[in-house]
Design a protein that fits this description.
6 strands; about 300 residues; alpha/beta
Length: about 300
């Protein structure tokens, strides 16, 4: 989870900075080309914070960066630096709402539906297998070599993967840069694309207009928090529900930690009790990341004692 920082200290995994930088068509092309391992040319400028809504009664979504290639393929790139347990189903919902906007009302041939990519870049491992990249396409269970050619692809990228030999060096460097967006890291890469992205990052951080937008967003978030606290004082039941949601999140994290550790062997009762008894949400988040990286239960136990 990324702490509150000044604009100059933000990493590219931060959603605000990511949207600002990827608003540049060339930078967006560079990022997509690195991720997909092929040269991508965009048809028009990307749209950041693009909203999709199918009805006033349905939940809308706001995509970080939406773009369309010259071939008509559509892309949504999302930066995720806050741990969430619903990203898999969220990607399904994003896919459905994005698809709903791609065909004109009178089009009857669904083969005209654009190919699409949902790309989520996270600074934690959603699946716990230490991969930099997880790519999902629909396949037939009864015949594993039979794909469902619906043109939909969902990719989850993990900045902390360990399978360097299975992905390109440029992708590894890009994901490392997403989480460590510094002059030093940019200077160590041999990728011209990453260096161009870094130039755009520095330009955004120096921009007075971007700085004003960032300050405004921070003020709006703070105002929302204050308003939420005031409303909570007025409505004790609301506060109770909020506490319930926080406890619910922590319970999910406790379960996720234990699931990851169970993959490494039998979890001792005393360690299970320690995890179940932890009440600090930030500590649980840190333990979850440690469990995802641990090579053994003993390794995890040693780390949390430090």
């Amino acid at each position: 989870m990324e702490e509150k920082k000044a604009l100059k200290d933000l990493n590219l995994i931060n959603r605000f900075l990511f949207a600002e930088v990827m608003d540049d068509p060339e930078v967006n092309q560079d990022a997509l080309s690195i991720i997909l391992g092929q040269n991508i040319r965009l048809l028009s400028s990307p749209q950041t914070e693009k909203e999709h809504r199918v009805s006033p009664l349905a939940k809308s979504i706001r995509m970080d960066v939406f773009s369309v290639s010259e071939e008509g393929t559509v892309y949504d790139m999302e930066a995720q630096s806050t741990y969430q347990t619903d990203l898999q189903k969220r990607s399904r919902y994003y896919q459905s709402l994005m698809d709903s906007s791609l065909l004109e009302p009178r089009v009857d041939n669904y083969n005209q539906l654009n190919d699409s990519y949902i790309i989520v870049i996270a600074d934690y491992d959603i699946f716990g297998l230490e991969k930099y990249c997880y790519t999902f396409k629909a396949m037939c269970e009864e015949h594993s070599s039979l794909p469902l050619r619906d043109g939909a692809v969902r990719i989850f990228l993990n900045t902390r993967g360990k399978n360097e030999s299975e992905v390109s060096d440029e992708l590894v460097e890009f994901l490392h840069y997403m989480e460590n967006t510094t002059d030093k890291v940019a200077s160590e890469t041999g990728s011209e694309r990453i260096q161009r992205i870094h130039e755009r990052v520095n330009k955004a951080k120096r921009s007075e207009a971007v700085g004003m937008r960032f300050m405004r967003e921070m003020e709006e978030r703070n105002a929302a928090r204050v308003e939420g606290r005031m409303e909570g004082r007025k409505e004790g039941r609301m506060e109770g529900r909020m506490e319930g949601r926080i406890e619910g999140r922590m319970e999910v994290r406790r379960e996720d930690i234990l699931k990851l550790l169970a993959n490494l062997g039998d979890v001792p009762d005393n360690l299970t009790e320690q995890i179940q008894g932890q009440k600090d949400e930030d500590v649980l988040m840190n333990w979850l990341l440690l469990a995802a990286k641990a090579e053994s239960i003993e390794d995890f136990a040693s780390e949390i004692r430090k």
